[in-house]
Each structure stands twice: as C-alpha cells, then as structure tokens.
Backbone:
C-alpha cells in the first residue's frame, strides 16, 4: 500500500515536470505582442507676415515674410551715396562709413503693428569715419586762390589771369552725408564749397608806368590798357636813370628841393616851392634811392637825357600824372 502511494506520487511529479517543460517550449516559440507607435506630427507653423501697408522708414514691407523684410531693409540702407562737385561725382558705400541698421529689431516690431502703419527707422553712423571721409574730400578739392601777376613783355605790361580758390564746407557736408546715411535717402549731395577770391585780379592791378629810357618816353597803363603817353627827360650818361622794376613810395605836392650829396650839387642850397624849384610842383618818389618822377623848371630839357637820374616831366603833365597814380603804383624802367 505504501509502495503504491509512493509510485503514484512519483508518477504525478514526473507528469508535472513534463507539462512545465512543454509550456516553456510553447512560450519560447510565441512572438511578443507588437508595441503600439505614436504617429509623427506633420503639421508646420506658418511663416509670420507683416501686415499689409506697413512702411519701415521709407521702405514698404507690408505683406513680406520676416526674413524677406529684413533683407529688403538691409539692402535699402546699403545703397551707395553720390556726392557731386561741378562735373565730378564721388560715390561711397555706407559700409565704409560704419553704418549699422537694426533691421531685425525693426522688422520684429513691424510684425506686431496694425496694417498701414508707418514706422520710423534710423541707421547708426560712425561720425568719426564720416568726418575723416569728408576731410579727404577737402584735401582733394580745396584749392588756394591764385593772384594775377604783373609782368613786362615787349616793353608792355602783361597781367596773368587770376584764379579763384575754394574751400569745402566740411561741417555742412558731414551733416548732409550723415542725414542720408541715417534716413536711407539717396539724393545726390552737392558738396558745399566757399569761393575764395584772389587778392589781386586783372581789374585790380590798376595803374602801371613804363619808362623807356633811351626813347625818353613815359607811358601810363591801366592794367594792360594804354591810358596816356608823355615825353620825359631821363638821366645823362654819367648819372643814368636806373633800370628795373620799382614802385612809387611817396607823393608830395609843392615839394622842397634839397641838394643831394653829389659833386654836381656842391654849393647848392635848398629851394622852397616856387617857379625856380627844380622839381616843379609835384614829386613822385620811387623805391630806387634818390630817384623820382617830377616836374621841372627847365621845360626845354624834356625829350633829352640830361637829368641826374630822375625822370622830368612838363609841369602840367606831372600834375596830371600825380592825380592818376598812387603809392604802390609799379614803375618799370627799361633801356629801350
């Protein structure tokens, strides 16, 4: 009886082990259940567009996407600026002048405003770079005035042409250029320049005297135009009238005559104004020491080389000439 029960229990144990092995085999051959997947989100965020009619600075950006608007604004402010002086045109790019444009910030604001809104926009400018650029323009275009010069050609006065100068008004140009850069406008800038007149011109030369020593002829010119000719007396061989360019340095009416320290005047005494005065009634002293143009008490000497170096004139002629010249009047004395 006991053996029978032990045998039955062993049979049941073996049967259970066999059943477990079979179940494990079945489970091993069965694929795992599928893992559920979440479908990918294929929707996209629509691009932001600036409301219609919006203007940024002077740039219409309504209806543009954000990136496109930034590009348009940047290109608008990057356009070169033209500056003109007479027939010369100079162009400069804003980049060279340190211009910066807050296009991203401005466009971001434009996205938030109602349609047809006008927004201001100003670029930043490097003032030092603008000033340096304008200073270079001044170096290029500034010029000093050129005075007329008085020369002698073929025994006649020759007056060279005067040339006015100019100076670029740098302050005005810096302001105008900065305004164009900041506002994005591109109107050509006329370079403001101040005219610098020459001190001496063809018209301001005034009277000029030419004395031809060998011909005993004095001619008064106004610039290069002949005014009047006079017969004169010049220096004798031993006391020649000096040659060269001089000017009138003194004018006296009714002068005294004082004898020079020369042998020919030894024993002579000063002579007051009057008919016996060797100088007549007028004295126009030259920058040549001791030499002048004057009247005479010896009218018959006119036309000859008989003086002691001065230029003698008829009394009436000396008085006329005295009224038509001034201190500083140039006097050319030539040998002809």
Residues:
């Amino acid at each position: 009886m006991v053996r029978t029960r032990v045998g039955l229990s062993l049979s049941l144990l073996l049967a259970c082990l066999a059943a477990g092995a079979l179940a494990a085999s079945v489970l091993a051959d069965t694929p795992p259940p599928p893992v559920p997947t979440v479908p990918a989100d294929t929707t996209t965020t629509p691009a932001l567009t600036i409301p219609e009619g919006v203007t940024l600075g002077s740039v219409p950006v309504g209806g543009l996407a954000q990136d496109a608007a930034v590009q348009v604004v940047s290109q608008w402010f990057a356009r070169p600026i033209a500056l003109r002086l007479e027939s010369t045109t100079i162009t400069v790019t804003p980049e060279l002048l340190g211009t910066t444009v807050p296009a991203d910030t401005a466009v971001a604001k434009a996205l938030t405003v109602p349609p047809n809104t006008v927004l201001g926009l100003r670029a930043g400018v490097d003032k030092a770079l603008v000033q340096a650029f304008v200073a270079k323009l001044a170096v290029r275009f500034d010029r000093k005035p050129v005075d007329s010069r008085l020369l002698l050609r073929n025994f006649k006065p020759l007056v060279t042409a005067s040339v006015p100068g100019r100076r670029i008004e740098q302050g005005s140009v810096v302001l105008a250029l900065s305004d164009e850069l900041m506002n994005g406008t591109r109107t050509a800038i006329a370079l403001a320049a101040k005219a610098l007149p020459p001190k001496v011109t063809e018209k301001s030369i005034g009277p000029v005297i030419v004395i031809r020593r060998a011909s005993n002829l004095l001619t008064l010119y106004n610039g290069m135009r002949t005014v009047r000719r006079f017969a004169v007396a010049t220096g004798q061989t031993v006391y020649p009238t000096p040659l060269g360019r001089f000017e009138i340095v003194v004018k006296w009416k009714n002068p005294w005559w004082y004898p020079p320290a020369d042998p020919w005047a030894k024993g002579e005494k000063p002579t007051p104004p009057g008919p016996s005065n060797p100088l007549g009634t007028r004295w126009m002293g030259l920058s040549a020491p001791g030499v002048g143009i004057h009247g005479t008490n010896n009218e018959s000497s006119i036309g000859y080389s008989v003086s002691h170096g001065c230029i003698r004139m008829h009394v009436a002629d000396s008085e006329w000439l005295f009224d038509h010249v001034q201190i500083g009047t140039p006097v050319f004395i030539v040998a002809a």
Confidence is low (pLDDT under 50) at residues 1-29. The helical segments are 2-28, 66-77, 103-110, 127-141, 170-183, 315-322. DSSP finds six helices and 20 strands in the chain. Residues 187 and 319 are 64 Å apart (CA to CA).
